[in-house]
Structure formats: structure tokens, C-alpha cells
Write a structure and sequence with these properties.
The protein is α/β, with parallel strands linked by helices. It has helices at 19-26, 69-75, 79-86, 102-116, 120-134, 158-164, 177-184, 193-213, 223-228, 230-240, 274-281, 286-300, and strands at 8-13, 32-34, 146-150, 169-174, 218-222, 254-255, 258-259.
């Protein structure tokens, strides 16, 4: 029960690129323990050249050498889950049933780490295992063999994830930059076009790099393909993980196995259909459309987006 035998599928995607949507389509798979919210495993000790661009809560964690297991646990930000557990009245997921006690998860986590020892890989294995041990109304099948997490932009840490967890895989989700920017523009304080596309291209750079460096362990899917045929697109990923590629649950987004009418508030993509996706891209002005084409040009051909709009 340590990092060497822990099977994790970690999903990463730039903001508004369909990471939450893909996460919800995998939810309910009978062989997967799918994290209930964004996993947000980062700690404040993350400090590198990307720290100024991406919030540390989304990064793969760094732990101090002198900390105890309990201090490690408290360092993991995991904002969405801890807010829902500790102050549900202010959580955007307060309407969803969730029988879960964060203090109990901490106790279970500490017990795991005391047995396995401290390391980034062992800490993360304990974190995911303890989450599902403490989640009382999680709909179990008894067939679960893979844990699934999702954190925006964590693909940039793909090499660290795979190095710390020898049985882990990374699934990167990419969405055309026009629809993605149109959706991020709806946020209260959105990124400017130049900053957003810079971050978008950096995510795609790391995804392609790590797919080549770690063949068979890094997988890339387009959000458009998930929307068009989720069973076929995600079934191919499941096959590589040696879990059932034909699970019926792959056909719809769910929460703890219960169908969702829309993915929101997990992400800004409410209705994951090709028609809605294209309509979102067309919300941009012609000037914005061409500016994005210019800034994202190297990756438009890589992901077959040259003629999307």
C-alpha cells in the first residue's frame, strides 16, 4: 500500500479546456475512484519558474523535509473539498450530498503514511486512498482499481507525477483556444487574451513533450472528441489503463454515479456538445479570433484546429 503499487490517472487541462467535463464523464466508472472535485494537491512550498503563472494549489505538491505526516496533510491545499467538508454553506457544491469528514480523512492519511513512510509519491497515494476511505456515501462497486484526480494545468508537472508514482498515468485534455478563451472571458476577473493564450500554449507544449518522453503513460484527448463521442474517446484511454473500455457510465457526465444535466458548477462548460462548443467560439469578435490564431498558431496544426473557426 505505497507509491510503488498506487494506480493514479491524473487529468490536467488549461482553464476552460474541458478537464472538469472529462473528469465528470469518467465519474461512475465501476473500476475507478474518481475524486469528487478538483483535486488541487499543491502546497505553498512549490516554487519554480512557473509559480508566477499558475496558482500553486493546482501544482504537484512539494513537502518540507522536517514536516510530520499531519503537517504534510494540512499543507495540501485541496480547497474545493476542504471548503465543502468544513464550511458547506459557502461551497458552490453545497447542493450535492457529500458525507465526508476532513478530520477523519486526516487521521486515515496519517495512518497510511506512518506505514508507508514519507515521500511525495507516498503522500499522494495516502491522500487519494484516505479520501475514499473517509467518503461514506461514495457509491462503491468493489471493482475499483484506479484512482482518478483532476487539477487544472497540472500537466506541466507530468514528469514529476510519473517519477513519484511508477504506476501513474497522465491524461491531458485540450480544447480549441477560441471556445476556451470565450469561456474564460466570462469569469469575474478573466485573464487577458495574451496572458491566456501564453498559458494555453505552455500547457500544450508540456503535454506533447511528456507524451514523447513517457510513451504509453501520457495520453492526450481533445475536448471536442469527448463531446462528440465520449464513450469512444475515453474508452480508448480506459483500454490503456486495463479497465473496461465499454462502461456505460462513459456516455454521460455524473456526480458519484448520478447523471448531471449540466457540468456546471464543476466547470464553465455547462452543456458539453459540439454545437454549444462551436457557438461559444463564435462569441468572439473577428479581431479576437485572428489574434488567437496568430498566438496559438504552432499548436493549431498539432491538434487539428486550423479550420475550427
Amino acid at each position: 500500500m505505497n507509491s510503488s503499487d498506487f494506480r493514479l490517472l491524473m487529468i490536467g487541462a488549461m482553464y476552460e479546456n474541458g478537464g472538469n467535463t472529462t473528469h465528470r464523464f469518467l465519474d461512475g466508472h465501476p473500476q475507478m475512484c474518481v475524486y469528487p472535485f478538483e483535486s488541487q494537491p499543491g502546497t505553498r512550498y512549490v516554487n519554480d519558474m512557473l509559480t508566477s503563472m499558475f496558482p500553486v494549489k493546482y501544482r504537484w505538491p512539494v513537502f518540507t523535509l522536517s514536516a510530520t505526516p499531519a503537517e504534510d496533510y494540512r499543507a495540501i491545499i485541496d480547497e474545493e473539498c476542504k471548503v465543502r467538508a468544513r464550511t458547506p454553506q459557502v461551497s458552490k457544491f453545497r447542493h450535492m450530498p457529500f458525507d465526508f469528514n476532513d478530520d477523519e480523512r486526516c487521521r486515515i492519511y496519517v495512518d497510511y503514511v506512518q506505514k508507508s513512510g514519507r515521500s511525495t509519491g507516498d503522500n499522494m497515494a495516502a491522500f487519494f486512498r484516505a479520501t475514499f476511505d473517509a467518503w461514506k456515501d461514495f457509491k462503491r462497486t468493489g471493482k475499483e482499481s484506479v484512482y482518478v484526480g483532476y487539477s487544472p494545468i497540472i500537466t506541466v508537472d507530468g514528469d514529476r507525477i510519473l517519477g513519484d508514482l511508477p504506476q501513474a498515468h497522465v491524461l491531458h485534455v485540450v480544447r480549441n483556444p477560441w471556445s476556451a478563451f470565450a469561456d474564460t472571458s466570462k469569469r469575474p476577473v478573466p485573464l487577458s487574451l495574451d496572458k491566456y493564450i501564453l498559458a494555453w500554449t505552455l500547457n500544450q507544449y508540456h503535454a506533447l513533450l511528456y507524451r514523447d518522453k513517457f510513451p504509453g503513460r501520457v495520453h492526450i484527448v481533445r475536448a471536442e472528441d469527448v463531446m462528440r463521442d465520449s464513450r469512444k474517446t475515453l474508452g480508448a484511454v480506459c483500454e490503456k489503463l486495463n479497465v473496461d473500455p465499454g462502461a456505460e457510465s462513459l456516455g454521460m457526465p455524473t456526480w458519484n454515479g448520478s447523471p448531471l444535466k449540466e457540468v456546471y458548477p464543476w466547470g464553465t462548460i455547462r452543456i458539453p456538445t459540439p454545437e454549444a462548443n462551436l457557438a461559444t467560439a463564435r462569441e468572439l469578435t473577428s479581431a479576437q479570433t485572428e489574434e488567437i490564431r496568430l498566438r496559438a498558431r504552432p499548436y493549431l496544426e498539432s491538434f487539428d484546429y486550423k479550420s475550427f473557426v
